[in-house]
Each structure stands twice: as structure tokens, then as C-alpha cells.
Amino acid sequence: MRVAHTIDATDAEGPGRRFALWTQGCTLRCKGCCNPELFDATGGTERTVPDVLAQIAAVDGIEGVSILGGEPLQQADLAALCEGVQALGLTVMLYSGYLLAEIVARDPDLLDHVDLLVDGRYDATKPDTTRRWIGSTNQELHFLTDAYDPADPRFSEANTVELRWGPDGLVVNGWPGGTRKVVRR
Ligand code: SF4
Asked: In angstroms, what is the span from residue 28 Cα to ligand 1's centroid?
């Protein structure tokens, strides 16, 4: 799979502390997308699922993995990654520009190994300022397993943004509305 970048442990991309992985490549091209640098399917780094799973397994103190894009559904080995994450005893949160029905039509088995799904194209004309981890009001958070309770207060807390300084400079992740203000694209 093409991987744009990863963060070993973040509190800003889903419930609890999570490993986050951004896939590289997206043909959906939502106007106002906060990650246009992830459109090019030739960017990023080619990695195998076992290699990514080994990186995840080496991280202590995470409860799950969040997979973002780019468009994760445009990676042929996404299902294997999701299955492998759950086999490690971790939860899977998937962000996709495709609707749940479109995902099922593309791959009826893929969501068997996804606990939380945020679905739908990002619509810049409908920014969502109330629901955590959701960019626009047309998108939905689906609880696909009983791993999480919708009443869990973590789902109604305020969105957050994280800033990291590393070898490649400033890295900003978390709520898209917040990262835009920091990065000012
Ligand atoms: S699906 Fe996601 S990555 Fe692709 S254009 Fe839309 S918001 Fe951006």
C-alpha cells in the first residue's frame, strides 16, 4: 500500500490514543479537502501490510488504529491491514470519502474488520463544528461493532489539534478546521 505518513500515538484522530496512518492517493477530489498533497497516487512510500503491522505492534499504550487519507478504499490491501490490526487486539477507525453503501458495493467484506467508520465526501459548504472527528455535516460516524458506545463521552468532547516538531519540520494533525487555521493553506 502507498503510505503518506504515520504517527505512532495521537489523541486527535479518534477515541483514545491511536496509531494513525494516512494513505497516499485519492481520486475523489472533494473541493476544500484538507489533504490535497495526498491526491497523487505515486507519492508516499510503498509498504507491505506486515511491515505496517510490525510498526503498529511495537507501539505501547494504544487502543486502536485510525486509517485516513488520501482515500484508504483505493488501497488494494486495506482489508488485510484492518484484519491484521484487529488481530493485534486493537480497534480500527476508518475515514473514507465513500459512503457506507458504496464501500459495501466495492468490497462486501471490508467492513467486517472496521469498528468505526466516518463516511462520505467532505463538503466544504457544510462544515461540522459540533461532532468530533467529522469534517462536514453530510458525513456520518457509524458504530459497526460493539467496541464503542455512542454514549462514551469521548465522542462528544471538543475537537483537538496536535502539533509536533520533528526532522521534517512542523507536523499538524487532528480536526481539519483547526489544522487549516494553524497551517493557513
Ligand atoms: S475523499 Fe478525503 S482525501 Fe479524498 S478529496 Fe475527499 S476529503 Fe480529500
From this structure: 6
